[in-house]
Amino acid sequence: MIRVLFVCLGNICRSPMAEAVMRDLVEREHLSHKVEVDSAATSSWHIGEPPHRGTQDKLKEYGISTKGMQGRQLQKADFEKFDYIIGMDESNIRNIRTMLGNPNSPKIFRFLDLTDHRKDVPDPYYTGDFQETYDLVLEGCRALLEKIKVEKQL
Ligand code: 4NP
After folding, report:
1. How far, in whole angstroms, is CA 96 from its chain's centroid?
2. Total count of domains within the chain
3. In which domain, by residue range, is 108 found?
4. Which of 41, 49, 69, 154 is most exposed, with the fewest beta carbons within 10 Å of its own?
């Protein structure tokens, strides 16, 4: 199994959005038996909470469910468990490297560095713009799936 983990600050806006969008793409390509997707927070602020209402509503617009999703915090064991550990912004990347104790691992990288944007995913918790975030997340997930297919020969 290939395991993908998206990480953001709160695990209620950006990383659950990426998790749900990626899972949807993986299901559409009939790769669910090969690729597993999860998300986590660097903070402990929203453990056990469902995704933010704005994330839920935006995903619902595109027919994607967030049923059963719950915030959790990144833990040290995630480093061994996951093949791709993807931060939404540069600050997440710094925190992931510190929390997991593997500062140089190539499996930790910033999401939109997979795209021509090469920037942080804007945080809709502050911007209020869930559409902008969704569009970038979708682009990032498409690029990630292509990368996985090439690297893992799917
Ligand atoms: P996220 O957004 O990292 O995309 O889930 C945030 C969620 C909550 C907070 C900040 C950012 N907060 O301050 O509680």
Report:
1. 13
2. 1
3. 2-151
4. 154
